[in-house]
Amino acid sequence: MSKRAADRTGARLAPVFGLPAAAVVAVLLYIPFLWTTYISFTNYDGLASPVWAGLANYKAMFSDPDLIGALLNTLLWVVGLVTLPVALGLLVAVLTYGHKWGTWLRLPFLLPYAISGVAVGVIWGFVLQPDGALGQVLGFFGLPGAHTGWLQAGPGNTLMMIVAVTWQAAGVNALLFVVGLQSIPGEPLEAARLDGAEGFSLFRYHLWPQLRPITTVVIGLSIVASLKTFDVVWVMTQGGPGTSSETLALSMYKETFVLNDYGQGAAIALFLSVVTFAASILYLRYQLGDSREQG
Description:
The chain crosses the membrane at residues 12-35, 75-97, 109-127, 158-179, 262-284. It is found in: Cell membrane. Keywords: Cell membrane, Membrane, Transmembrane, Transmembrane helix, Transport. Residues 71-283 form the ABC transmembrane type-1 domain. By secondary structure, the chain is mainly α. Helix content is 75%, strand content 1%. A two-stranded antiparallel ribbon has the order 1-2. Helix 2 (56-63) crosses helix 13 (262-294), helix 3 packs antiparallel against helix 10 and helix 4 runs antiparallel to helix 7. The longest helix is centred in the N-terminal third of the chain and has 37 residues, at 3-39. The radius of gyration is 24 Å and the shape is flat. The protein starts with a helix and ends with a helix.
């Protein structure tokens, strides 16, 4: 068989070999998404047949003060996780890169990433509970805040949980930034040092512009992770007190599996999916457009 005939045969058979993968994607992704979309327009308790309700679930979602609060908390998570873990990871990467003991200095920041979100919630719940580890340390040194209920009121409880996730996520961000630093050619940096650039000026004008691609990745991952925040919040506060620390992901879980309102839960899930997809696309379009302008 000639090479051209073999290529034509391979082209005809390619869709056949792709069918198993397409079937897996359809079963695990597309069909559940379409089913969730349908359920979001119905009244459904998981037992009886779904009853068409039109836009009732979406109207209820946008008129429910608790869900509006969950949306605001989710936005607070986005701002917090795009700011704190990214900034701390960048700082750790820059300060330890090229250092003789850089790997060991980054290790304490990287280890928490190996811990699950549930474990992070348990650890920090112990630290922040009334008269917990933090309160005992403050009390021992006679500092204010020893008996503060760090998780007892919003939005302070959300801010403290963002600190907990920062503790977990900063290390992997630092590792990604180190990868970005390693990809920077050494000659331009050496030339910049010979020209007198050092410290913050070296970072600002020579390192930071070349870290842009990896920064786009880190921030993009942080945005998606923040919009899906669930496990840490559920373990530490279960969205409370009341609904003061609920996120959209937690509201979706409660509506679906606690209140058995599958229609409302599906509406929140679909809204969260659309927001996550839109935020990712808009962010990437902005970054790519900005890169073209600079190029």
